[in-house]
Design a protein that fits this description.
The complex is a heterotrimer of chains A (about 450), B (about 300) and C (about 300). Chain A contains 22 helices and twelve strands. Chain A is α/β, with parallel strands linked by helices and about 450 residues long. The longest helix of chain A has 15 residues. Chain B is mainly alpha-helical and about 300 residues long. In chain B, α5 packs parallel to α8, α9 packs parallel to α15 and α10 packs antiparallel against α11. Chain C has two domains: about 55 residues; about 240 residues, MetI-like (MetI-like fold, Orthogonal Bundle), CATH 1.10.3720. Classes of the chains: A alpha/beta (about 450), B mainly alpha (about 300), C mainly alpha (about 300). Chains B and C meet through α2, α5, α6, α7 and α9 of B and α1, α2, α4, α5 and α6 of C. Chain A: This is ABC-type glycerol-3-phosphate transport system, substrate-binding protein. Chain A: Its main location: periplasm.
């Protein structure tokens, strides 16, 4: 019994909340909203960002007289993924679990459809982008609600001073705070020239080519910019096309100007690279900037988050949504739905975004102009263009539009980054394509 | 043979011959290379210590990483002030103590039965116990999920996400080796000891508790330390079976709550790693000889 | 010693044949009951899940259909699988060889110095083995960090450019093996030290009288005397190294490309991260026959030990 009390501690928090739960308990109303609910959220890596979620859930719990246990589960070392797999296999665990990118599709059959919630939310908060729909609406049914917490655009974050010094680019003029971007010149050629100049100047771009999500997202956006598709929506392998070849040539050239060990980078490497003051640009949500603000303020003052360069087929930026999903083994599905509705309101979204210092990005159209992005500093306006306020770029995910099961594997195995690394290391292009084609054939299993 | 092999017998070298010049040089070289190896072996823990004494700003500054310019205990204060960290510690301690107790109960009795009271299939069992080491934990954890689901459906007992589940699982890792050590120890005890006891009318259980356990105490201590170290260090199972912050044990707790993919906090990570390594290190510092005896017991009896 | 006791026991046994018979009856029952917790533990929590895993390995990806050995057939056609086989063997064999050599050399040095100081050195040199691997690998990860590598800081003073410790296939394999050697060599050291102490001093004296050089003493006296322990330790270590998970997982997560994936980590990647549990089980299962070969050698040794008892 002693332990049980401790285990509720995270939820209960202060003694005030404790007493109110105690008082509330005897007056539990109705069989539905009442009862217990356990929720597994993504453990935010911006310090303090979990606080808003915790507070909102508490508010809801008090209102609905539901006893909630919250767990914040890190995605590091794929702990969250492992938890999801474990709960799916054991058919028990949390009622609500935060899952990312491909998992709604993977576990679609075990998730409670949330079309009713989504219809209402889209009415309230505006449309969601195509990528969110591709990832969350499976066979015409929404199986999860796009979460504010953890959803992000992994756009470029550049050093104002270094880009000016080495490449003569004024990134603030291209992406002025408070007004639409003037970035028509910001294309792949200019990007390559800047990468070369910064490399020569000793401050290369830090674009990882490992197989973790940051790396895969970046290359995914560049592939989209070339229109390079590996597997089409019907599930046919179409990777032997000129767009893919162009994209690989582009990367082969780019990699000369990147640090030598980019092939081993993980999601933290680019952040460290920026914070250490070595890098002129990385592709990341504002967490790197937030760390720099804490540990290396001089670096933070020079950071500017902006958009991707435009390619032959358009301007694409990687968007990685988190979703809140309800397991079908949950014993309290109506309470779970009620909580998700509560967490998806505009004001809840804004509180979460604020707590994360602008990192979190709601997926709904009307929720991309919160004050926090305009006001974040130093330097003032550094995050203004982070949420893509002018729909300047198309939000995308690597490996789309392939069927989910194939796309997921392409993404998780980092096939695109592996192709780039192989080609860069001197493997003939056609051999690289053969290799990729062979690997992807292996993903067709069902 | 067994007697000669007992570990920790002081070397008999010093007694022989006069220390010639050659010998002295050989000794100097030995010290030199030992120092080199000691540097290699102790460098990572040393670097942990150094990093744990630095502030975040110092860690990200480009300067000599092997020196602490502004030593601070802020990482220790921050970590030990965290409620979660103390919970991890408590869970680890409880799990390890319970696992060690269970392990010793199971393996001492079983080892006694296998070494002294042969029964049908006992030889096969003795080898079978060792063979369990061939089955990697990476293979077992998914079937275990399924079994947990079965247990829940039939009995209503939820095994997922509870630290005490680890108490049930860990013995699979500790019992085989502990049993092996104990079989070795019991086998080296002269046969007339138990025969005499049995003839005097002692039961088998009395023979075990009154005679064998006192005599094999060093082996029992060695197996205890070994089991403790193994259960303290386990990583995959707690990572697979526990999720909530208040159910985690130390190694997984440190890796999951301190490392946040995008944001790195190396000062605290290293502090946590050092504190996580501390209990086995402390036990080892005091009981090193038993620990070494335990490690070498199995092999040197060959 | 046991032999001396035996005749006595036989005489006694003759005297009380019937009583002893009953005792024997009871003895095996009691013995079985005493071993029962062990049998249950291993049966329920190791053998049963292991068989379950074999069954899982024979299902299709969505685990709805039995496909027999289909998954294995599929695996054999994949290049990555053979890479993993190669890497696992390379990793395990190289690491074990170096652990054995370093352990042997260090044990010799410790044995060389006066016994008064031995305890201290032994204590220091065993530290890597005591630290939980998940913790110590974090320290290595930090030492190898691309942006802040403390090794590269030192190397830079000698004009050696930044080494991509975990960034290039060759270096990454080197680093992973290095960390494994670091963590495992002390175990060899301590085993060999115990073995060295059991080599009778007279043998060395005899060799010295024959005028044997130091390497001859090692080759003709030490090694043959230690053969058994070297074999057991190496094989024990081989099992643990083959099944390694933590070190690779924390250090490189199998990268760059898939050049440091081992059976355990790749199986985990396929099974958990890519949601193909049967295929993941297959990969991990593949370790078992390889280890079984190693085991059969160990087994012979254990049986020998059993008969000596």
């Amino acid at each position: 019994m002693g332990f049980k009390k401790v285990s509720r501690r995270r939820f209960v928090g202060g003694t005030a909340a404790l007493s109110s739960v105690m008082v509330a308990a005897p007056f539990v109303r109705g069989a539905y909203a009442a009862g217990k609910l356990s929720v597994g959220f993504w453990d935010h890596w911006v310090p303090g960002a979990n606080g808003a979620t915790e507070k909102l859930v508490k508010e809801w719990a008090e209102k609905e007289k539901v006893e909630v246990q919250i767990d914040f589960i890190t995605s590091n070392g794929n702990k969250l993924l492992l938890t999801t797999a474990a709960e799916s296999q054991a058919k028990s665990g949390h009622d609500i679990l935060a899952i990312n990118t491909w998992l709604p599709a993977r576990y679609a059959e075990q998730l409670v459809p949330v079309d009713d919630l989504m219809t209402q939310l889209i009415k309230d908060n505006g449309k969601v982008n195509d990528t969110v729909e591709y990832l969350g609406k499976i066979n015409g049914k929404w199986v999860a609600v796009p979460a504010t917490v953890g959803s992000q655009i992994k756009g470029p974050c550049s050093r104002i001073d270094l880009l000016k010094k080495h490449a003569n680019i004024d990134i603030q003029a291209m992406y002025p705070a408070g007004s639409p971007p003037k970035a028509d010149d910001w294309n792949l050629d200019l990007f390559m020239k800047a990468a070369e100049a910064c490399h020569k100047g000793g401050n290369p771009f830090g674009i990882g080519l490992g197989t973790t999500s940051d790396n895969v997202d970046s290359i995914g956006a560049f592939f989209h910019a070339f229109g390079a598709v590996l597997v089409d929506a019907k599930g046919e392998i179409v990777l032997k096309n000129d767009q893919v070849r162009q994209a690989l040539d582009f990367y082969k050239k780019l990699m000369q100007f990147l640090p030598p060990d980019v092939a081993a980078w993980d999601d933290a490497s680019n952040n460290k690279f920026l914070v250490s003051g070595q890098g002129a640009m990385i592709m990341n949500p504002p967490s790197a900037w937030a760390v720099a603000k804490r540990d290396a303020p001089k670096v933070a003052e020079q950071c500017w988050t902006h958009g991707f360069p435009v390619g032959p087929k358009g301007r694409f930026a990687p968007f990685l949504p988190y979703f809140w999903s309800i397991w079908n083994f949950s014993k309290n599905q109506s309470a779970a739905k009620s909580l998700l509705m509560y967490l998806s309101s505009a004001s809840a979204a804004e509180q979460m975004t604020n707590a994360s210092g602008g990192y979190d990005l709601p997926s709904f159209e009307k929720l991309t102009t919160f004050k926090v992005w305009a006001e974040a500093e130093p330097p003032k306006g550094t995050l203004y263009h982070y949420p893509n306020p002018y729909n300047h770029q198309t939000l995308s995910v690597a490996a789309a539009p392939a069927p989910h099961k194939i796309a997921e594997q392409i993404y998780n195995q980092g096939i695109q980054t592996q192709m780039a690394v192989r080609y860069f290391k001197g493997e003939p292009l056609e051999k690289t394509l053969d290799w990729a084609s062979n690997e992807i054939e292996g993903f067709m299993r069902n | 043979m067994a007697d000669i092999a007992v570990a920790g017998t002081p070397g008999r070298r010093g007694a022989y011959g006069s220390i010639s010049r050659d010998r002295r040089w050989a000794m100097r070289w030995s010290y030199f290379f030992l120092a080199l190896f000691a540097i290699f072996f102790l460098m990572p823990p040393f670097y942990m210590l150094i990093t744990s004494l630095k502030s975040s700003a110092e860690i990200s500054a480009a300067q000599n990483p092997w020196w602490v310019f502004g030593p601070t205990l802020e990482n220790y204060v921050a970590l030990l002030g965290k409620n979660e960290f103390l919970i991890f510690f408590r869970n680890s301690a409880l799990v390890s103590i319970c696992v060690v107790t269970i392990t010793m109960l199971i393996s001492v009795t079983a080892a006694f039965a296998l070494a002294r009271m042969k029964f049908w299939g006992s030889a096969t069992l003795a080898t079978g116990v060792f063979l369990t080491y061939l089955i990697p934990d990476t293979l077992l954890f998914i079937p275990l999920f399924k079994m947990f689901a079965f247990v829940r459906d039939t009995t209503g007992i939820e095994l997922m996400n509870h630290w005490w589940t680890l108490i049930i699982i860990y013995p699979t890792l500790t019992v085989p080796f502990a049993t092996w050590i104990m079989i070795g120890y019991f086998a080296s005890i002269p046969k007339e000891l138990d025969e005499a006891a049995l003839i005097d009318g002692a039961s088998w259980m009395q023979t075990l508790t009154k005679i064998f356990i006192p005599v094999a105490l060093p082996g029992i201590i060695a197996a205890t330390i070994f089991s403790f170290t193994v259960s303290w260090a386990q990583f995959l199972y707690p990572m697979a079976f526990t999720t909530s912050t208040n159910e985690l044990v130390l190694p997984v707790g440190i890796v999951t709550t301190l490392i946040k993919g995008d944001v790195f906090n190396w000062g605290q990570i290293m502090t946590g790693a050092l504190l996580g390594a501390a209990p086995p290190l402390i036990i080892y510092a005091f009981l090193m000889d038993y620990y070494i005896a335990g490690l070498t017991a199995g092999a040197t009896k060959g | 010693m046991a032999d001396i006791a035996a005749p006595n026991a036989a005489v006694l046994a003759g005297d009380r044949r019937t009583g002893l018979h009953k005792l024997m009856q009871r003895k095996s029952t009691i013995a079985f009951l005493m071993a029962l917790p062990l049998i249950l533990l291993i049966g329920i929590l190791v053998l049963y899940p292991a068989c379950y895993a074999i069954w899982l390995a024979m299902l299709n990806k969505s685990m709805t259909k039995f496909v027999g050995l289909g998954n294995f057939q599929f695996l054999f056609k994949r290049d990555t699988f053979w890479d993993v086989v190669f890497q696992s063997c390379l990793f395990a064999i190289t690491a074990v060889i170096f652990k054995a050599i370093i352990g042997f050399v260090v044990a010799h040095f410790v044995h060389n110095i006066p016994s008064k100081g031995q305890r201290k050195w032994r204590g220091m040199l065993l530290v890597p083995w005591v630290i939980p691997p998940a913790m110590s690998t974090l320290a290595w990860l930090w030492l190898f960090d691309p942006a802040y590598s403390a090794f590269n800081w030192i190397l830079a003073h000698f004009g050696i450019g930044p080494v991509p410790w975990l960034g290039e296939t060759g270096w990454a394999r080197f680093s992973v093996i290095l960390v494994n050697i670091w963590a495992g060599a002390p175990f060899f050291m301590i085993m060999y030290l115990a073995a060295l102490k059991s080599v009778p001093e007279q043998l060395y004296e005899a060799a010295a009288i024959d005028g044997a050089a130091w390497w001859q003493r090692i080759w003709y006296v030490t090694l043959p005397m230690m053969r058994n322990i070297i074999a057991i330790t190496a094989l024990f270590s081989l099992i643990v190294t083959f099944a390694n998970f933590d070190i690779v997982r924390v250090l490189t997560n199998g990268g760059p490309l898939t050049s440091t994936q081992l059976f355990g980590t790749w199986g985990f990647k396929l099974g958990i991260e890519s949601g193909d549990i049967p295929l993941g089980s297959c990969v991990v299962l593949f370790m078992v026959p390889i280890l079984a070969v190693a085991a059969s050698v160990i087994l012979r040794d254990i049986n020998k030990r059993g008969s000596e008892v």
